[in-house]
Amino acid sequence: TEDILHRQDKLAAVGQLAAGVAHEIRNPLTSIKGYAEFLSMDETAKDRQEYFDIILEEIERVNSIVEEFMLLSKPTVSVLEKKPLLPIMDNVVSILDYQLRKNKIQLHRSYENPNFFVECDENKLKQVFLNFIKNAVEAMPNGGFIEIIVKKENDSISIVIKDSGIGMSKEQLKKLGEPFFTTKKDGNGLGLMVSFKIIENLNGKVYIESELGKGTSFHITLPAVD
Ligand code: ADP
Ligand code: MG
């Protein structure tokens, strides 16, 4: 089993981040420009519809990058409130219900106590759980199991999201949280970066265990509130 501790200094690499953003946005912009120019020059092109579709897809790509970064830029103004944790988790699970069924994934929840409270911005914490569980789903193209365990550990709440998916190599594990690191065809590689940042803003921690071919667990701890 390979363990890594998520290092907060990954987010300090602002220059690298900016370069990455510029690069990721420039590619779709270049193709949008090219196809738009082509369409304006040749009004009768027979592949018109195909070019319009590419333009729309590329715009959607830029849009998803911008949306993730907007989430990142907001934490400082977000208002933290005392909230029950489990309804937040259950809401995320219900949002993903269709996807879980479609992918033949069984999800098991084990909650030690129904009354855990955390200080959080509810929508951001939902975003975090959604990102982690979606990644688990995407790691199991042929079905499998997800286990969500929530319990108290000293003054913290421990949340484990465990999947029986494809797992990760040591090299992959090291790159988690780096902007634009993705191994997926349609991935943007921003979900974990944003999620780690949100957890950090709640004074929480993330720890990841993974084994190729066996599965992955994300261990999240958040300060417990009485
Ligand atoms: P994306 O999902 O768009 O690729 P993320 O930041 O959410 O971006 O994840 C980055 C990468 O981390 C994924 O592409 C995948 O390689 C790896 N990863 C994350 N979660 C898991 C998981 N549960 N199992 C296997 N690989 C994972
Ligand atoms: Mg993801």
From TrEMBL:
<feature type="domain" description="Histidine kinase">
    <location>
        <begin position="20"/>
        <end position="226"/>
    </location>
</feature>
<protein>
    <recommendedName>
        <fullName>histidine kinase</fullName>
    </recommendedName>
</protein>
